[in-house]
Design a protein that fits this description.
With 153 residues, the chain is an alpha/beta fold. Helices cover 41% and strands 16% of the residues.
Amino acid sequence: MRDQILLISNNTRLENELRDALKERDLELRVGHDGRSGLRQAFELLPGAVVVDADLRGPSGFTIGNVLRNHARCKELRLIFASEKMAQADMDQHGQLKTRADGYVPAPGKGADIAAEAERLLGDESRDARIDRLLKIPATAPYLMGPGLSYLI
């Protein structure tokens, strides 16, 4: 089974660029077009990596990343932030936080860079081994994620 990369973004250009780049690497792209559907897919699929559009409207991409990092089962997922608007200095500053991502890629036109970063983060661990490892972590109900976050799912 091919490894899955989840993109949480409503940016169709980024989606198309990433889909094309992942095809070349035999990785499957799944897409959540808003924070709510993206989080649901992350919890259900346990993808190899989650690419979050930091410029996402509604709950911001950083809010989505924070929910993933604070959820018992999802905090081990590889997380990549992509942004068209954020300066590299801001990405570097976010990289110092406890809930930081594993990778930061400026977008657009960077579908290949995001795919390469996802592939690097996946490393040699097989999809089956990763899912087995993640399923051993007890799941917590969405309402246990913290105040103000449960409305997202």
